[in-house]
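User: We ran a pulldown and think these components assemble together. Before we commit to crystallization trials, I'd like a predicted model of the whole complex to look at. Sequences follow.
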Amino acid sequence: MAQAALRRFSGEALIEEAGPTGMVTLRGTLRSGAILSAVQGAVGLRVPEVRRAESGPRGSVLWMSPDELMLICEAGEAAGIAAGITERLAGEHFLALDLSSARSRFRISGAGAREVLAKGAPVDLAPRAFGPGDLRRTRLGSVAVAFWCTGPDMFELICFRSVADHVYEWLCLAARPGGRVHLY
Amino acid sequence: MLILTCPCCGVTGEETEFHPGGEAHLKRFGPGSEDGEFTAYLFDRKNPRGVHFERWRHAFGCGKWFHAARCTATLEVFGTYSARVSAPPEEILAMIRARRPGWEASA
Ligand SMILES: [Zn+2]
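Assistant: Here's a predicted model for the assembly, 291 residues in total across the polymer chains.
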């Protein structure tokens, strides 16, 4: 099936659709040795601290809640990673599922990126309060999102696919030229 | 506007990130209970002017339920605590008494 071209918008920040992304949800006792080694084996990363994201060449691990992680990987790898974790954790109390189709991912970058997010989320986005590796699950406008900081003025955001068009348009509107308030 | 701290993930956020779940510490009356007890369990709620204990959910955040002790008149939040208790813990009661001398928990 042909992929639709990925949308991007350049304004006070660059808003980009990330396109097909592998996402594996993993629920369980996050500090257990079994989960730590399963995550290490799947994407080569540590289990992140509360409200943090770990990133490396094979993907990312997002803290989602006290008993939930999200593994971000290549689109074609998610099913295999979920199956591999399920095999490795046999006998443990856990859940690993390929949920790649549930959510959409965006990149927000540039000098106005912090303000774009701050216009919709009740989160302190000052650089000293929200830096690389920090993550928040919160709302953007009226819909649930999670976003994390991947570098100076660089962010990634995921939301449910059913509201992805709305979120994309919301981000573009918030990044429209002339919209900076120079808070940060 | 309430500012609540979720005891499950540590976020201090404004109330639009949370969803209220009504009065806390209700005792469930189910099959086999008296009609009056069941009716009270379903419908009777405290509506105090002052200290109140409520259930809240970090709906847009970690998704977990927790308890909050707050004042319905001033919106002051005395503290938040685990959802896994059936009565407010002593440290929460101490925080309330420090702010509301003479206050006593009603049965
Ligand atoms: Zn929380």
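The mean pLDDT of chain B is 95. That may be worth checking against your pulldown data before setting up trials.

User: Thanks, that helps.
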